[in-house]
Specification:
The protein is α/β, with parallel strands linked by helices. Helices cover about 35% and strands about 25% of the residues.
Length: about 250
């Protein structure tokens, strides 16, 4: 059975594990650095990002998480997990928080507002739907949700969403930052960059399993590519060894 690690410090890790179970995959709770050695892919769930960061720092998880991402292992961050994976975050609480990084983007924490401004909406994601079937829209659950304001050239945008009319009154945006946000007609809410998948919303809180299925297939493709490259390198090394062992005639 396939094993997928789920960071289980705080937040909706149980919900992710339940969806994985429905797809015939075992989710493994990850709380310590050494546990990452037992899995080849990882989900960082939604939750309270500052609290999760403090717990990750307490358990000395950040170095291992960064190495996991750097090694090209498949990682999916939802909501707070997206914030974790971003190279840059704005709108943070005083003092900020540590980030894992690896995703070339700038994310605004709580872009869509406070807890009472949480909402559900249909999100258009044709790339995911084309691979998983079904309608092109997905139910997006946005809970104190972040949004991606800028994404690098290697980042594939999977979904965006219109900026709500009430965003100018958000207590988490002010001054120039607020002006920048309001002038954008849309913000990015789902992306992929090589081994990293990230969503600003919570697919684990809906009955639709297609995002999880998409991540599992992505992880499988990455593993197969890695194995092919490893085998190619082995073949090259073997051929070179054979050449070196050939007799040299004068």
């Amino acid at each position: 059975m396939t094993l997928v690690g789920v960071l289980a410090l705080q937040g909706s890790f149980n919900e992710h594990i339940a969806v994985l179970r429905r797809l015939g995959v075992k989710g493994v709770e990850i709380r310590k650095p050494e546990q990452l050695q037992n899995v080849t892919s990882l989900i960082i769930p939604g939750g309270e990002s500052t609290t999760m960061a403090k717990l990750a720092e307490y358990h000395n998880l950040f170095p291992s998480l960064r190495e996991f991402v750097k090694m090209g292992r498949p990682v999916w961050g939802t909501c707070a997990g997206l914030i974790f994976l971003a190279d840059k975050a704005t709108g943070q609480k005083t003092g900020g928080q540590q980030l894992v990084g690896g995703l070339d983007c700038t994310v605004h924490r709580n872009f869509f507002g406070s807890q009472i401004q949480s909402f559900e909406a249909e999100v258009l994601a044709p790339e995911v739907a084309s691979k998983e079937g079904g309608p092109e829209t997905f139910r997006g659950v946005f809970i104190r949700a972040p949004a991606i304001l800028e994404a690098g050239p290697e980042v594939q945008v999977l979904a965006d969403y219109p900026v709500p009319s009430n965003i100018s009154t958000s207590p988490y945006s002010s001054g120039e930052e607020q002006k920048e946000n309001v002038e954008q007609s849309k913000v990015i809410v789902a992306v992929r960059q090589r081994n990293i998948l990230a969503t600003a919303f919570h697919p684990e809180l809906t009955a639709d399993t297609r995002w999880h299925s998409y991540f599992l297939k992505m992880a499988k493709e990455i593993a197969e590519t890695s194995n092919s490259q490893l085998q190619l390198q082995v073949n090259i090394n073997y051929s070179q060894k054979q050449l070196n062992e050939l007799p040299i005639f004068q």
